[in-house]
User: What shape does this take?
Amino acid sequence: MNTKTAVLASTIAAALLAGAAHAQQPQQTCFPSRHGKDDQVGNLNYVTPEKTLAAAKLVTKGKSYRLGIETNKDTPAFPPRTWSIAIVQPGQVHGAALGPTKTTYNDDIIMGWVGIGSQLDGLGHIGIDGVYYNCNKAAEFAMAGGLTKLGIEKVPPIATRGVLLDMAGYFNTDIVKEGTPFNRAEIEGAMKRQGIKSIERGDVVLFHTGWTKLIGKDNKRYGSVEPGLGVGGARYLAERQVAMVGSDTWGLEVVPFEKDQGVFEVHQILLPMNGIYILENMETSEMVKDQAWEFLFTLGPSRITGAVQAIINPIAIK
Amino acid sequence: MNTKTAVLASTIAAALLAGAAHAQQPQQTCFPSRHGKDDQVGNLNYVTPEKTLAAAKLVTKGKSYRLGIETNKDTPAFPPRTWSIAIVQPGQVHGAALGPTKTTYNDDIIMGWVGIGSQLDGLGHIGIDGVYYNCNKAAEFAMAGGLTKLGIEKVPPIATRGVLLDMAGYFNTDIVKEGTPFNRAEIEGAMKRQGIKSIERGDVVLFHTGWTKLIGKDNKRYGSVEPGLGVGGARYLAERQVAMVGSDTWGLEVVPFEKDQGVFEVHQILLPMNGIYILENMETSEMVKDQAWEFLFTLGPSRITGAVQAIINPIAIK
Amino acid sequence: MNTKTAVLASTIAAALLAGAAHAQQPQQTCFPSRHGKDDQVGNLNYVTPEKTLAAAKLVTKGKSYRLGIETNKDTPAFPPRTWSIAIVQPGQVHGAALGPTKTTYNDDIIMGWVGIGSQLDGLGHIGIDGVYYNCNKAAEFAMAGGLTKLGIEKVPPIATRGVLLDMAGYFNTDIVKEGTPFNRAEIEGAMKRQGIKSIERGDVVLFHTGWTKLIGKDNKRYGSVEPGLGVGGARYLAERQVAMVGSDTWGLEVVPFEKDQGVFEVHQILLPMNGIYILENMETSEMVKDQAWEFLFTLGPSRITGAVQAIINPIAIK
Amino acid sequence: MNTKTAVLASTIAAALLAGAAHAQQPQQTCFPSRHGKDDQVGNLNYVTPEKTLAAAKLVTKGKSYRLGIETNKDTPAFPPRTWSIAIVQPGQVHGAALGPTKTTYNDDIIMGWVGIGSQLDGLGHIGIDGVYYNCNKAAEFAMAGGLTKLGIEKVPPIATRGVLLDMAGYFNTDIVKEGTPFNRAEIEGAMKRQGIKSIERGDVVLFHTGWTKLIGKDNKRYGSVEPGLGVGGARYLAERQVAMVGSDTWGLEVVPFEKDQGVFEVHQILLPMNGIYILENMETSEMVKDQAWEFLFTLGPSRITGAVQAIINPIAIK
Assistant: This one.
């Protein structure tokens, strides 16, 4: 959820006002998973061997793509998110080398917030008034030393069908304008334009907006607004039981938020309400150029115990 | 290169003595890459679309495996390597939630050494007297704030043929004894036993030794010795022009080192001399049970700019 | 507030039960400071030049004492608090030195929680239901990237009268038993025994219990219980308008808590209700041996902007 | 040694050229301490009770000064030095409070390089071709996980005579020009102007240049050059056997370096050759205004085990 905080600053006033109108409505916060009361991995349950086998058949050219952008101190991220790396040479002070073949080596230390660069939002990331996926209460699993449930280390191996929706192409532009929502009409329109027949259970759906072109050129615009998934679109994808949804933007969902919608309500619909993971800052430009619309999507997030998110670099294979 | 330092403590005295005998020999430190003078990715150049396409055809069952073990403060790692994670809830002090739909969220901060848990040794990790892959001198690229060459962010997308050699099966044991070297005879013996016809250019070769069974049970033994690749075996695989070599041990190569061999000389043969990456702490038990000997191996290491290593979780698909 | 979390685990059940009885009472959370509505430094306002000048006259022998214990990864601290340091030699890879006089240098990186070892609890550390010193609400100043009020950087220079109360001597023991509360009777009893005539406005009061003798020998006991200041004693010192109170224990106040008292209620009386700072893990053994009861106490906490606590090493001069 | 690396970038070429001229001279790297072969604290041995007692008598007004500037991510520091702090509320997710009195609390995590802001350079900071104070070789004590000798935790309590030399006043300017060296003539001239009769064994000598006025206004100038101590001045102070030397600049010594002098040779003269500590980024403006020329200087650096430097905030009392 890169730079989300920035947005909050600007949207929270309006959002809280909007909140007033809803104040009398009782709000449902616990959404039991359809995958069973102990489930911690959501719609990744739909990535079955049958699904993987079918997805592998989408590989017809052998070209693979890395979807990750780089994570470093200059990657746009809102305060207080910070990143730092240090390179060290343990035991080699003053030019020492090890043994007769003079082995030398570098090691590395990282210090920073996981939510910088390409990232996977795990099911422990977003909740509804403190209640997360499958009715897990933050107070019971979000320990200061690591999540005791819904951690990233629990994510199963991912190899499934990926679908890329070229929204920039759909809107006939290079960079889709901020605040443009992708709902049912836009999703089905893009599918039709690209000849994609269906979105199916267990799929990974990626949106291409051209937004990453702004990185390093207009970081402020990049990180404060974005085109993206709308509330209707999120519900539409949830009904199709996809496993993950991603985009080449910092936060997937449309910002400013749609009228009368909550703050990051799309995140709520996907993560706690439906067990659908979110992929952010996915680099999809080359895939669009190659018209790689349907492909084998693979991802193994590093298994840091108790982590909320992961810095990722999925591999798409066409 | 998890817990390598531990080993150094015990082997360095012997190694330095051994060094005396070699002291008069001039040593070659610069090995120009066969991939061109500007190359930074080594034998991953052999992972071509043709290679990927052929590897995708190895998927016949659709079962996928995650090869990563977990990274946390208890994962065996020698001092001074440390790991820590903290979970935070920015902007939600004292129970605040965002907007009318009451969005709450967790974020995470990591602080630690990259070489803990399952890891990829990049081409900037190991050198020969300060000279690394393709004759790059540490003084010119190993900056304290990040590698300026050979960093992990440069690794291309990886989708290639994987071959698993079941050395525990070959030696008819659960856990191969420490100090057991895998050289040509053992590699070809395991291949024959498993019906693997060849090791080919651009392959990823993994060894299964049963060693990870020791984690949490005998961390000291786990991290101070290991069975593994010998110098002859490393040269054999280098001749076959593989892209990566890995194992279910902390350091891939046999420890104690073979007689008359250098300290981590196998690492030197693979990384700086041949541009072959190393994968450590790969969890391969389930694959052995399923006899998943040849498969599609995929890996996209998180693109942390200037990093030496990566915490990884490759996905193998059979 | 070192290892406090540990205690919470064992005391919270009882505390919450106790809470039931109080549930009907309205609770005051905002205690306006007597130092003015914008004040952020509490009773350190009482450390005036007159006070400092008088305290300097307590120096009669010239012997100085460092009150800090060491902070490292083995210093007792409850999970998830962690500590790590790394030493680096930037720009000196492979034995390089700078210039004709061959300058070399070491640098250091720290990663960890501030609440480890000797520490100063700032006024932003403890609150009453989210309200901190001088009625500051956490939601308004406890930002994830640093406190915007009550941060440690605001602490003025401290040079004032220090008084050491030898509670181990008072109880005629080496190590005062855990759960022993220090209230008015014990404080005045110790003063009388040591010939200390008064505790005055702007003083720093330190308790010696012998507790640090347990460090490295029985860390579990050290960090889960302690003798210390009781609720009555805290009110007594607050009435005397002291500036700081400290002890040679991890958390100053008596644990288990006194009957019918809240969880860390002594912290609440001192910090948010009275603007009195807390000093923890103060090494006072040598001072007791020298009977250094009244002295010049000096402290300049490192001015890390927005920090809650500080790792400290006050100097007492007799 | 804040932002030193920046300077190195610009001076190293010249320095290395200069080095050529010296290349034939044998260089002494080991300077045995006059305090004994096991000594690790250098001239702080001169801070005896007699010295402290005399210094305490310098307190005539009771006014105390904090010499520390703030350390945060915006404090000028050259890459790769970075700083980050995070505020957390363990166990208080979603508004939980502890017990009947509803205790809440903030904790803090720091991640960064120690050499940012006001700092103490310990005796393990600077060496001559890998040899540090009292002939200690880096290879034997500068372990990656912390110094095993010369660490900051060994610094004794410091309460001694401080002398402030107002070089801005001496040069009749607000901010002394970069590259202005302070050698014997300037030091004695400033003393005479201020009526300071002597610099004595065990003293702390501070220079005021006005340089900190540039922070936040011209960070580039601030951190790339500076007026400061020259080689002759360093030798002069070393002969007087002072304990520490500091300034209101990032690196104490004059930059650009004096003609024919080494890279940070003043650091070498003070630290490894004479056991004299260095204080950087000392805020002395208010003291100059008050003409607080001779005073009681107190410092207790936080005792982080194995640290090279310390983030400090000394207290001067007049």
